[in-house]
Amino acid sequence: MTTHDAAPVQGVDESAESTRRRVLELVASDGPVTAAELAARLGLTSAGVRRHLAQLEEEAMIAVHATPGLAPVKRGRPARAYVVASGGQAELHDAYSDIAVQALRHLRAAGGDAAVAGFATQRYDDVVERLSPLLTATDPAERAVQLAAALSDEGYAASVRPVAAATLVPIAQLCQGHCPVQHVAEEFPELCEAEARAFSELLGTHVQRLATIAGGAHACVTNLPLGTALLGAAQTSASEQIPEGTR
C-alpha cells in the first residue's frame, strides 16, 4: 500500500520538472515573455506559471528584463518579462562543449588563428550545404522563416520578428534564444562570425549581427533586410509579436 501511494507523488514531481523545463525553453525561445503569455502557450494558470518562474529565477536560470510598452498589472506595477540567464543557457547547452573547447585550443596552438577560422568556415559551409535544400522560398522574408524553423530543429530556439524601423528597406530580426555552442563561441568568436556569413549565403542578402549569447546577450540577434512587399510574410510567420528592443 505504501509503494502504491508513493507512485503518484513521483509522477507529480516529474510532471512539475517537465513543465519547468518547458517554461525555461519557452523563455529562451520567446523572451522577453511574461507569465501571462507563457500560461497561454502552456494552457496553465498564470499563478502556476509564476511558481515555476520564481523557482527558475531563484536558481539564476532566468532574469527579469525591462521591456517598454507592456500593459501594467495590479497596483500599477509593469508586467515582468523574463529572458534566459547564463545559468539557463548552461542548463540547456551541450555537455560536450568542454571537449570542443579543448580541441579548438589544441588546433589554435598547432595552426594559429587561421586554423581556427578555417575550421569555423568549414563548419558553416556544411551548415549551408545541409540547410539549403530546406529553404525553398524565393523571397528573403519567407526564406528567413524557413531558416528559423530549420535552426529550431537543431536546437537554436530561433524565430523571425519584424522590426519597426524608419528605413527604406524593411527589416526583420532572426533571434536565436539558445546557442548549443555558446561556451565554445565565448572563447572562439570565429564561430559566430562564420555563422553570420552562412546566414547571408543562405538568405541571399546582407545580414548584420547585432548581439550574441556568447557575447553576453540573452539572445543572438541578426538584422535581415527585406523587400518592401515582403515584411508581412515575416509578421504573420513569426511565433510572437515582441516589442522593439528585445536585445
Automatic annotation (TrEMBL):
It comes from the Bacteria. InterPro entries: ArsR-like_HTH, Carb_Metab_HTH_regulators, WH-like_DNA-bd_sf, WH_DNA-bd_sf. This is Winged helix-turn-helix transcriptional regulator. It comes from Xylanimonas protaetiae. The lineage of its organism: Bacteria, Bacillati, Actinomycetota, Actinomycetes, Micrococcales.
